[in-house]
Amino acid sequence: MTDKIHLTEEQWREKLSPEQYQVLRQSGTERAFTGKYESNKAEGMYFCAGCGAPLFSSETKYNSGSGWPSYTAPVNAEAVDEHRDVSHGMVRTEVRCAKCEGHLGHMFPDGPGPSGLRYCINSASLDFKPEDEG
After folding, report:
1. Is residue 37 a contact partner of residue 124, using CB atoms and an 8 Å limit?
2. Within 13 Å and on the Cβ side, how many CA atoms surround 49?
3. Among the listed residues 107, 82, 94, the one whose alpha carbon sits nearest the alpha carbon of residue 26
4. Cα angle at 88 between 111 and 48, to 5 degrees?
5. C-beta separation of 1 from 95 below 8 A
6. DSSP state of 66
7. 124: left (phi over 0), alpha (psi -120 to 50) or beta
8. Degrees (nearest 5) of the Cα angle 73, 110, 68?
9. Is 120 annotated as catalytic?
10. Architecture of 9-133 per CATH?
């Protein structure tokens, strides 16, 4: 991964929408089935809405039924950082953008395929670029 991005909270507030700021910088969560990418089936790449780093490919996206965009793996091992999250009376694995440390969502061990992982990601933390846009 390239160098980390460090902005002040004021700079983040100017750069992001209120919903993006709440998710990316305050570890918020959008309500289930409300995110703009939850039902997106187009081919392309999902980037961090905070810094533009590539995070997930549509090739690993699947319908988990959870209400959030779900992926079996990030675009590469360096794209995200994982941290133990014990908030809300649960033990979970938080997923953050490795470049800007923005909160993306959580990873759960109940996904399909060989890894068995489900990266449950907030749409507000993502920007999507369709494959046909190069």
Report:
1. no
2. 25
3. 94
4. 55
5. no
6. S
7. alpha
8. 65
9. yes
10. Beta Complex (2.170)
Other CB atoms within a 10 A radius of the CB of residue 21 amount to 20
Instruction: For 69-127, write each residue's pLDDT tens digit.
Output: 999 999 999 999 999 988 878 788 999 999 999 999 999 999 998 889 999 999 999 99
pTM over 0.85: yes
Distance CA 101, CA 104 (A): 9
CB–CB of 79/87 below 8 Å?
A: no
Token digits of residue 89: 């009376």
How many residues can be counted in the chain?
Answer: 134
Q: Which pair of tokens denotes residue 126? A: 């993502």
